[in-house]
Amino acid sequence: MKVEELKVGENIQYTGEFVIMRDAAQKKLTQFQACPINLEGKIIFYAGPAKKPDDCPIGAIGPTTSARMDKYLEMLFKLGVKATVGKGGRSDLVRDLCKDYKSIYCITPSGCAAGLSKKVIEHKILMFEELQSEAIQKILVKDFPLIVAINSQGHTIWD
Amino acid sequence: MEKEIKETIKQAIRDANTRINEDIKPFIDHYNGPFSEALKENYHISCSTGLPLCQDTGMLEFFCFLGVGFRLERPLQEVLDEIVYEVYKESPYRLSTVDDPLFDRKNRMDNTPAIVHIFSVVGKSLEIRFLIKGGGSENLSRLYMMTPSATKEEVVEQIVQHIKEAGARACPPLKVGIGLGGTSETAMMISKLALTSQISEKNQDQQYALLEDEIKTRINNLKIGFQGLGKGISCYSVHILTHPTHIATLPLAISVDCYLCRTGCVSFEG
User: Fold this and answer.
1) Four-CA torsion B146, B149, B151, B156, nearest 10 degrees
2) B42: distance to nearest CA of chain A, Å?
3) Domain ranges in chain A?
4) Which of B25, B40, B177, B226 fits as disulfide partner to B191, beta carbons 3.0 to 4.6 Å?
5) Options 3.40.50.2000, 2.40.30.200, 3.20.130.10, 3.30.870.10; which CATH number does A11-150 get?
6) B chain contacts of residue A87, beta-carbon cutoff 8 Å
7) Full-model pTM
8) pLDDT tens for residues B157-171?
9) How high is the ipTM of this complex?
């Protein structure tokens, strides 16, 4: 997808990769002088999956409140992150950052974790395994439902 | 007896995590805005696979009405901790509790402790109501120490203002619990207890029943909608519980539950 062309409110059935991280992992990343992981071109999904049953690639998974991650967003953009995915509105700062870095923020349904887990094909823990569900993880998804909530012109679905 | 208590509560917790609350199912079925298909599909998949409805399988809050004639061999806290430990060790849920809240924040790996409130009541039975409380909705809990001269309008305004600012972050439509009176901690606790009410339940006092309706209407007029996207209702119901208070105080506590309303109620005869 061409990020700059996406309009606010547009529905996307996304197939591809997400890098999962949330509060604890981002806080930990701020403690490094040089980022220990390559995030160039990645899409960050704010999530912390439940336990994985033996016969599934991943356990129940869904977005967490993105507003808690606002303070780490500029750090992510400076590391080359292309877009973020989560739930709920974000501060005005995020609207400005999306404009400055030509990035977007998408929402995906919350409280919908059994269903969303069926869209995940592959799952791998990348870093900070000790954080358990909050570790940095990589997933491959198929037809994952997203709505563009903030676009690269800084417009939002809540305007 | 303890074995029966444990098995019954464990099953009720599994049901609340994987089966859609019948009270709210019609609202989800009726909703046809953004992501509506995903929400409907979710509860079918959850029911058939045993995967939880939401990845945040919460902290467990128990409200126990313990009859003085009900015999227990062990402290109720110990029994409920063991129940949470076993259910969350055995099920594909998330282990979401950390030991130290500020410094280490190391995962406890068993989702304990259970949050337990015990009320000693007459009789020989034990009734336990519980909430599976996710972090997203818990972060909206608020306590306001209003002045004793505050008017009904000021109380309503405070509640509506808070939901307007933060309601979209707690996965609406919301069930709203209000605690009025008591001391600060009583107000918070009864606002949580209020969340164990059925949607159709009303305060017995007509004045408060009307106030519940008024607040619900005001919140629905905010048009927050399912998923905070402006379509469908914003609030299922408002439940107010009150407690006598000091002449100099008027504590107002707000708690909310997310659109899944994962609650349960079980009772045992001693």
Assistant:
1) 10
2) 4
3) 11-150
4) B177
5) 3.20.130.10
6) 136, 169, 171, 227-228
7) 0.96
8) 999 999 999 999 999
9) 0.95
